[in-house]
Write a structure and sequence with these properties.
The complex is a heterodimer of chains A (382) and B (381).
Chain A lengths: L7 H14 L9 H17 L18 H14 L8 H12 L2 H13 L4 E4 L15 E5 L2 E9 L9 E7 L8 E7 L5 E6 L8 E12 L3 E2 L16 H4 L1 H21 L5 H31 L5 H24 L13 H12 L10 H12 L8
Parallel strand pairs in A: 1-4
Antiparallel strand pairs in A: 2-3, 3-7, 4-5, 5-8, 6-7
Chain B lengths: L9 H17 L2 H9 L6 H10 L18 H14 L5 H12 L5 H12 L5 E3 L7 E6 L2 E12 L6 E7 L6 E7 L5 E5 L9 E15 L4 H37 L1 E2 L2 E2 L4 H30 L6 H29 L10 H14 L3 H11 L12
Parallel strand pairs in B: 1-4, 2-4
Antiparallel strand pairs in B: 2-3, 3-7, 4-5, 5-7, 6-7, 8-9
The chains are: A alpha+beta (382), B alpha+beta (381).
């Protein structure tokens, strides 16, 4: 299927047609069920050559031009199809593709994209969050093997993963002594423990490494050269999904507007808040468009891609809290009661979004980066 | 809309850069302040240069109407640069608001006579687009006469003509009317206000002869268009105000040393500047989006164009005020002095924000326009 030759309209039609022709499994109710459903869709898309919009064709992807990547995310976003399972496709995949050996690419990329193998990221540690370069998990070299000892934290999917991609210390302190390793989850010495977060759910894990043996052939890139390859991406993938994310926020706002009306708290004050949220959602949408236009035109996003995340994370926190405020005391019931489907959603979201400004880069580090890179201020950290 | 319109073309970048250099050289802030001190005057030489030589008079109007044949995509850049430089001129009232409204009003003869002079700057007009509509009209022979008091008329002390809105007796529709500034029965009362670089006055009309440009069924719509134009134009300008305040603050922070280092090395200062950048990008995004819709729908035929213009006003206003406030904060004591330009930007940001109405009314109107809740009876933009 030569996707890249299609016009955006033809592309959308073709892709939508494929999605509509696929059988839809029922919604999942538990973690195992969600994984099974995500794997189903991953495989279904892969088999129809409709997986991996930015992924190279040589390894099962579509390698779409940027404009079609945007269209892809739109169509998928509207289809309510789950994201590919695990953390591999967006992160490990690009690193292995760009910096891996031919053997590593052959062995890992296709099963990753199809969802046959689930990957979990092993970067953060209890003592190395924002200051990731200070990580302490060690990999001692012994001939053609590394012996790994240490602990990782905040690992999504680790309890369902087949493989980890991890940063470990092989050399001096700091970023110049870090190596990128691919570690089999079933290796002796690996212990995975689910981590209960403040919502009460267990979507994250900890991973403990006790003398875990990893062949040197599972190293990606050079020894002590892992830091610079760790955040490889393919083709502005996050920017490609920006419009769809903005559309998601506008829908979320619509749900809150409906809530204001049905909850009987439609007052002048709440209307002002809603109008302000609307203006913020509008700005997010326009910024996504500007990011996409900049990439299409110049190959690089401008400042909008850096600032968008600061806006969206604050937005989703404030909006969930506002929704909970609208419900007032009635919002305090967690999911479970017959009429609590709505309250449960906002209550859960209120708690869950506390992580929005922390995970995948804290808002504080984001601001440091903006000040340093865009405003050319002295480097502090991160 | 075309996504690409949101990015600047090379020509547009060149235009912005040219306009910026022009204002830096020809309209330094001291010059604008000196002019404004004289009863809200503006530098006429500068004005002619702007309208004719620099060519920004009527930049968005078609050539057939006497304009430059570009669009709001270019105009928004010009407005942004005016915000950056805080230029004292009647551009907002005469060129950005009145000219586009006027270009679609009245008979062809009138337009041919008046519009080119507005666009080349030889006739400065102001539109009563701000504040509640307060005037009344009555028949006078074959024409009409206007009476009452209209507040918030920009550049009233220096204009050559007014574009007004007046309601008939018994609330019988609203007309759009043209009044020469030297007509009989006009009393202009100005008072010092927050932003002396954007003077306005209360104008009293005592049975002043006026020329009706839009009849009682159409005038309310024209007023609505004028206000939406104002919202977009102010929003674009506010983006420039915000940008300059960020530039000033970042520059100062990198130079100012305390505790043995530049204060730009302190995290709180860096974070404030990052948050200011968020506001600046937000303001520009909203303004550019509105400009791109106006470029294809200059008469606000589509509901989207109207709310996009008001979103630009709302977002731009909030952004400019916050960034101007934070700019003063980052400057510390020196930012609080009269001599330092920072407060001029805050004055411009706040006054322009409030000219469009209270932020509460603006948000309420915006929410209604985008359908967040049902429209109340009797509300218009």
């Amino acid at each position: 299927m030569n996707w890249s030759a299609l016009t955006p309209e033809a592309f959308r039609r073709e892709l939508t047609g494929i999605l509509e022709s696929m059988a839809r499994p029922p919604r999942a109710t538990d973690k195992a069920g969600r994984l099974a459903r995500a794997k189903y869709w991953s495989a279904a898309l892969y088999d129809r050559e409709a997986a991996g919009p930015a992924w190279p064709r040589a390894y099962g992807g579509m390698d779409l031009p940027f404009a079609l990547q945007v269209a892809y995310h739109e169509v998928l976003g509207q289809s309510h199809i789950p994201q590919p399972p695990g953390s591999g496709v967006g992160l490990a995949g690009p690193t292995i593709y760009k910096h891996g050996t031919p053997e590593q690419r052959e062995r890992y990329l296709r099963p990753m994209l199809r969802g046959d193998e689930i990957w979990a990221q092993g970067f953060s540690e209890p003592e190395a969050g924002s200051d990731l370069a200070s990580l302490r998990t060690t990999a001692r070299r012994e001939g053609d093997r590394y012996i790994v000892n240490g602990q990782k934290v905040w690992n999504s999917y680790a309890d369902q993963a087949d493989m980890f991609f991890a940063l470990v210390r092989t050399g001096q302190a700091g970023s110049k002594g870090i190596t990128y390793l691919l570690i089999e989850a079933a290796s002796p010495g690996v212990t995975v423990r689910p981590l209960r977060d403040m919502t009460g759910h267990e979507v994250f894990c900890e991973i403990f490494f006790d003398d875990v043996v990893v062949p040197v052939s599972n190293r990606v890139g050079e020894e002590n050269g892992g830091w610079s390859i760790a955040r490889t991406t393919l083709g502005h993938e996050r920017a490609a999904g920006a419009l769809q994310q903005a559309a998601f926020y506008q829908q979320l706002l619509k749900d809150v507007v409906a809530l204001a009306s049905t909850s009987g708290r439609d007052t002048g004050l709440t209307r002002l808040r809603l109008a302000q949220f609307w203006a913020d959602a509008h700005v997010m949408r326009v910024m996504a468009m500007r990011t996409i236009a900049d990439i299409a035109e110049r190959g690089e996003p401008g400042a909008t891609s850096s600032v968008s995340r600061l806006i969206s994370t604050k937005f989703e926190q404030d909006l969930h809290e506002f929704a909970l405020d609208l419900l007032g005391p009635d919002g305090l019931a967690s999911a479970g009661a017959a009429d609590s489907a709505q309250p449960g959603r906002w209550l859960y979201g209120f708690l869950r979004t506390r992580a929005s400004t922390i995970g995948a880069g804290t808002a504080e580090i984001q601001r440091n980066i903006i000040a340093e890179r865009i405003l050319q201020m002295p480097r502090i950290s991160g | 809309m075309n996504l690409n319109d949101l990015s600047l073309t090379d020509e547009q970048k060149l235009l912005a850069s040219m306009v910026r250099s022009f204002f830096a050289a020809a309209a330094p802030l001291e010059k604008s302040l000196a002019a404004a001190e004289r009863m809200g005057a503006y530098d006429r030489e500068l004005w002619q240069e702007m309208c004719v030589e620099l060519g920004i008079g009527g930049i968005a109007l078609p050539e057939a109407a006497g304009g430059r044949g570009a669009s709001e995509l270019e105009e928004s850049l010009v407005l942004q640069e005016m915000g950056r430089a805080l230029v004292r001129s009647p551009y907002l009232s005469s060129i950005a608001i009145t000219a586009p409204v006027l270009s679609r009003l009245g008979d062809e003869a009138f337009r041919h006579e008046v519009l080119p002079r507005v666009l080349d700057g030889s006739l400065v007009a102001t539109c009563a687009a701000f504040g509640p509509q307060q005037l009344e009209y009555a028949s006078e022979g074959a024409g009409i006469a206007v009476s009452g008091e209209q507040r918030l008329v920009l550049d009233a002390t220096v204009c050559d003509a007014y574009l007004l809105f007046a309601s008939g007796a018994d609330g019988d529709g609203v007309v759009a009317a043209w009044v020469d500034a030297d007509a009989a029965g006009i009393e202009v009362r100005s008072a010092p206000a927050l932003d002396q670089l954007r003077p306005f006055a209360t104008v009293r009309f005592h049975g002043t002869t006026a020329r009706m440009l839009a009849g009682p069924e159409a005038g309310a719509g024209v007023r609505r268009v004028a206000r939406s134009r104002a919202a977009y134009a102010v929003g674009a300008e506010q983006a420039g105000v915000a940008q300059h305040c960020l530039d000033m603050a970042a520059e100062y922070a990198k130079q100012r040393r305390q505790f043995g280092q530049a204060i730009a090395a302190f995290q709180v200062i860096q974070h404030k500047c990052a948050d200011m950048l968020v506001e600046v990008e937000s303001a520009w995004s909203a303004a550019r989006f509105a400009a791109s819709l106006l470029a294809v729908d200059p008469v606000f035929r589509n509901a989207e164009t109207e709310w996009a213009a008001w979103a630009a006003g709302v977002v731009g206003g909030r952004a400019a005020v916050r960034v101007a406030e934070e700019c003063i904060q980052i400057h510390g004591g020196i930012g609080y002095t009269w001599e330092h330009p920072a407060h001029r930007y805050l004055r411009r940001a706040k006054a322009s924000q409030l000219l469009l109405g209270t932020p509460f009314d603006q948000l309420a109107a915006l929410g209604e326009m985008v359908g967040l809740w049902p429209a109340a009876a009797g509300t218009a933009g």
